[in-house]
Write a structure and sequence with these properties.
The chain is mainly alpha-helical. About 80% of the residues lie in helices and about 0% in strands. Helix 1 runs parallel beside helix 12, helix 6 runs parallel beside helix 18 and helix 16 packs antiparallel against helix 18. The chain is globular, with a radius of gyration of 22 Å.
């Protein structure tokens, strides 16, 4: 039901805002722009779905090799102590833990194209355990919120955009983004745990979280110790080695266990193609609503209102010029990226708003996109509190990004 209410709210709010612009400001272009956005966003949704087909076909095939070769079972066993506590509905050592862990690992390395097929594979596995097929299970919600919180070690794409726009030090947002995503992920985990009454205060969970924290600190120390111009090179090479190493380990294990590797690849690839087709109507639906909401000017009204409020209470408002990125991020990844680039153009890539925009862009994932794609793939209609928990994590990421930006850059 949550997606139903969100979709309705986007359209109704957009229509009211557009009427205000027409009646009080004489803006005769707003309704044609909204109408045009319905067609353009429908086209975008279809193109994204088709664009996913190749990646889905490949990575679902690779995951099938891993399943039949036994690698997935090994991965599941390694993270079972943690995941059986934050995913209590999933049986111990269940195969779904394999693609789930791989998905988190790919997101952590900033490999979104590889992470999405693994996430869809995970959602399919969770759907098999779901007794109410049209209603999101607790495990599906936990998985989705942890995805939308967007924990990322290396924000390669953002550093690339900063370099392209002439930043003096494109990697200076690396540490702030890592810290912001860490806080958003932690808040997302805590939020869902409260909803689901999961006890996080036990030594197993704390030990895993502590280990992850140490890994982050070690990574931070390493990347601080090398020249900034080497950060992107090292991260790209490391990510590629890890990714290809994973693929090779799947193949080696499969050969060892006498699995027909190519046949497994093809069988899994067929599932990937079918999933890509399934998500088209769900993705088109949510993107059209987002497009109408944006083109109506509703986001601009929200941003102007916040600026007025912060000026009234006497808070420094320099960060407000970067807030369009925060408003767009839960709705549209490309929209948020466009808002970030627009901030670079208007204020400068190395300006305070430019740096805040960069950190905001890397602080979380695109919540409603992930919601539409992952739940749409398994035909979930009642998302329960998934959107609420995801937006809470997003909000934490935004607040952390702003505060950390002031600490690092102001």
């Amino acid at each position: 039901m949550a997606l139903n209410y969100i979709w309705i709210a986007f359209f109704l709010i957009a229509f009211v805002v557009a009427l205000i612009r027409l009646i009080f400001f004489g803006d005769t272009e707003v309704f044609p722009e909204m109408m045009e956005s319905t067609f353009s966003m429908a086209k975008t949704g279809f193109e994204i779905s088709i664009g996913l087909t190749g990646a889905l076909t490949l990575w679902m095939g690779i995951m099938r090799i891993g399943e039949r070769g036994g690698v997935v079972a090994v991965i599941a066993k390694g993270i079972s102590p943690l995941f059986t506590r934050i995913f209590p509905e999933i049986p111990k050592n269940h195969p779904v833990f394999g693609p789930m862990m791989m998905n988190f690992s790919m997101n952590f390395l900033g490999l979104d194209n590889a992470a999405t097929p693994l996430g869809l594979k995970t959602m399919e596995g969770l759907q098999e355990l779901n007794p109410q097929k049209e209603r999101a299970s607790n495990a599906q919600i936990m998985f989705l919120v942890l995805n939308t919180s967007g924990l990322t070690l290396i924000p390669v794409s953002i550093m690339a955009y900063r370099a392209t726009n002439g930043a003096a030090n494109p990697a200076d947002i690396f540490i702030p983004i890592l810290l912001a995503t860490y806080f958003s992920t932690l808040v997302g985990l805590i939020t869902v745990s409260i909803f689901q009454k999961i006890n996080l205060l036990n030594k197993v969970v704390l030990s895993y979280i502590g280990t992850l924290t140490l890994i982050i600190i070690a990574a931070l120390y390493y990347f601080q110790s090398i020249p900034q111009e080497q950060v992107s090179v090292v991260s790209n090479v490391a990510a590629a080695i890890i990714l290809l190493g994973i693929v090779c380990s799947f193949i080696i294990m499969a050969v060892k266990n006498k699995v027909n590797v190519y046949e497994a690849l093809i069988d899994g690839g067929k599932d990937g193609f079918n999933i890509a087709i399934k998500i088209i109507p769900y993705l088109v639906g949510i993107l059209v609503a987002i497009g109408v909401f944006r083109s109506s000017g509703a986001l601009d009204f929200i941003n102007d209102g916040f600026k007025t409020f912060f000026e009234f209470v006497g808070i420094n408002t320099e960060f407000v010029d970067a807030l369009p990125v925060a408003w767009m991020k839960p709705l549209s990844g490309s929209g948020a990226r466009a808002a970030m680039l627009e901030t670079y153009t208007n204020f400068g890539v190395d300006s305070f708003p430019g740096r805040v925009a960069s950190v905001l862009q890397g602080s979380t994932e695109t919540t409603f996109y992930v919601l539409a794609v992952y739940f749409g793939a398994v035909k979930i209609k009642n998302s329960r509190y998934a959107a609420t928990a995801g937006l809470i994590a997003d909000f934490a990421g935004v607040i952390a990004a702003i505060i950390i930006s002031y600490i690092f850059f102001y």
